[in-house]
Amino acid sequence: MSKYAKLTSGFIGAWFAFSIWASASHLYVNDPNAPPLAFGLAVMTPIVLFLAWFISSANFRQFTLSLSPRVLTLVQSWRIVGFAFLALAAFRVLPGLLALPAGWGDIAIGATAPFVALSLAAPGHRKSFILWQFLGVIDLFTAVALGALAGLLDPHGIAPTAMTMLPMSLIPTFGVPLFLIFHIICIAHAVRWPEVAPSSSSPQVWNAASPSQGASS
Question: CA–CA separation, 25 vs 41, rounded Å?
Answer without folding.
Answer: 16
